[in-house]
């Protein structure tokens, strides 16, 4: 629900969607003929290492795929079939992946390696097989050199508008979430687990062995740094992360994936996704990770015109993708299709210093000054002089900007570039 006020009169109130009654079962998308899995790793590994996978290799569903034995990054095969291609893939802001495509066969065979490890060790079972399962498990939580987990926050609400995937999980799969929370408690030795949910899901959530906290429904209350401030009473200093303070976040869907995996001895592979169509109506679907978006559109009878926009994620923080062959990822919680005729126009007007962005910013970033440095590509200066790193990435500034400056995209690009430069310097 989005209620936008007249500019200058009052702050817009952006409310999270609520799922009061149980939606029908998610619509199942048939297993596609080909899946593509994105492995976040150095493309230099494509030259091949010992034990690396290669084209024409046969793989089973649930098999761990790495490009080199010594490389910790992996994806899990979500179908049985033959690897048809292994190619470099460039994501948002030039982020590098390797795309592994598998041509599926109808007779599915399940790889049993997870079941063997899971029997012996919860931590290794999750770290070595479940990081790319539906919901996406945060890698720092299962890093060998992380510090103590003081608080683990399980999110029963999505952090962007219009998306109801997490609420759907709480309503439909609470038993699996409960099991997952029990396993997470043992595997991470978390001192405290809290489960954040909207008030109308308090009853369902109370089945879990966790401290239940009610989240405000006004955006951006469900963003991690807002939960840190409003629920945990901790402000994350600029340039630090929640993990630096010993607080880790995981989605309700990821917790459910862990619960299901250990109960059945099989890795879950179907991602629940809220699909928001051009007319604003929403449907929840269940699709294998790696399914091309085009298969979902066909199943839902969604016709795309040339300039329609596809956004992965919510309206405030999601990112546009440019191909209907883009695959479903472990953390694809929503797909929004925007009609080209209804899209907000983009302008190249300069900042008019109206101050709307500053009034709406929850952390008081001086955006009107920041944006000037970002437009000039002066990222380090933006961090040093105008609090770039204090931004919690809510997207509200871009939403209210009358000059339609893509401030949020500038901010994300600047943070990405600074992080990349830091990694290069450390190397
Ligand atoms: S995205 Fe914009 S409004 Fe939101 S915290 Fe960052 S600077 Fe402030
Ligand atoms: S960036 Fe946009 S919202 Fe902010 S002061 Fe300039 S014109 Fe106004």
Short description:
The chain contains 13 helices and 18 strands. With 427 residues, it is of the alpha/beta class.
Write out key terms for the chains shown.
427 residues, 13 helices, Ubiquitin-like (UB roll), alpha/beta, Rossmann fold, 27% helix, 6-stranded mixed sheet
Overview of the structural elements:
This protein is α/β, with parallel strands linked by helices and 427 residues long. The protein folds into 4 domains: 78 residues; 149 residues, NADH-ubiquinone oxidoreductase 51kDa subunit (Rossmann fold, 3-Layer(aba) Sandwich), CATH 3.40.50; 72 residues, Ubiquitin-like (UB roll), CATH 3.10.20; 81 residues, no CATH class. Helices cover 27% and strands 19% of the residues. The chain has 13 helices and 18 strands. The strands form 5 sheets. Strands 3-15-14-18-16-17 form a 6-stranded mixed beta sheet, with helices on one face. A hairpin with a 6-residue loop joins strand 16 and strand 17. Helix 10 crosses helix 13. The longest helix has 20 residues. The radius of gyration is 21 Å and the shape is globular. It starts with a strand and ends with a helix. The site of one iron/sulfur cluster (SF4) has 15 residues, from helix 12 and helix 13.
């Amino acid at each position: 629900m989005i209620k936008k006020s007249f500019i200058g009169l009052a702050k817009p109130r952006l409310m999270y969607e609520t799922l009061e009654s149980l939606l029908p079962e998610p619509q199942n998308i048939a297993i596609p003929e080909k899946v593509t899995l994105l492995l976040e790793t150095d493309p230099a590994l494509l030259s091949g290492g010992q034990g690396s996978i290669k084209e024409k290799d046969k793989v089973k569903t649930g098999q761990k795929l790495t490009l080199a034995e010594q490389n910790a990054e992996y994806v899990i095969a979500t179908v049985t079939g033959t690897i048809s291609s292994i190619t470099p893939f460039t994501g948002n802001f030039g982020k590098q992946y390797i795309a592994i495509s598998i041509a599926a066969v109808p007779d599915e065979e399940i790889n049993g390696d997870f079941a063997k490890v899971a029997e012996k060790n919860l931590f290794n079972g999750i770290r070595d097989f479940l990081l790319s399962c539906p919901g996406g498990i945060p890698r720092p939580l299962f890093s060998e050199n992380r510090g103590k987990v003081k608080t683990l926050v399980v999110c029963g609400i999505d952090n962007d508008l219009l998306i109801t995937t997490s609420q759907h999980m709480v309503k439909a799969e609470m038993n699996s979430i409960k099991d997952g929370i029990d396993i997470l408690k043992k595997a991470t030795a978390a001192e405290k687990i809290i489960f954040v949910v909207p008030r109308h899901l308090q009853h369902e959530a109370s089945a879990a062995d966790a401290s239940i906290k009610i989240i405000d429904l006004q955006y951006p209350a469900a963003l991690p740094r807002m939960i840190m401030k409003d629920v945990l009473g901790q402000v994350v200093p600029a340039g630090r992360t929640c993990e630096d303070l010993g607080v880790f976040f995981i989605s309700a869907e990821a917790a459910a994936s862990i619960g299901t995996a250990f109960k059945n001895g099989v890795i879950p592979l179907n991602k629940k996704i809220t699909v928001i169509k051009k007319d604003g109506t929403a449907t929840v679907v269940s699709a294998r990770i790696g399914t091309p978006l085009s298969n979902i559109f066909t199943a839902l009878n969604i016709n795309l015109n040339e300039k329609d926009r596809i956004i992965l994620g919510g309206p405030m923080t999601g990112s546009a993708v440019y191909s209907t062959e883009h695959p479903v990822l472990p953390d694809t919680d929503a797909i929004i299709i925007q009609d080209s005729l209804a899209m907000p126009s983009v302008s190249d007007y300069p900042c008019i210093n109206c101050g709307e962005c500053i009034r709406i910013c929850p952390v008081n970033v001086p955006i009107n000054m920041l944006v000037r440095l970002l437009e000039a590509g002066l990222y380090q200066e933006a961090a040093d002089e105008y609090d770039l790193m204090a931004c919690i990435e809510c997207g509200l500034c871009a939403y209210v900007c009358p000059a339609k400056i893509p401030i949020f995209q500038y901010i994300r690009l600047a943070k990405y570039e600074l992080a990349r430069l830091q990694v290069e310097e450390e190397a």
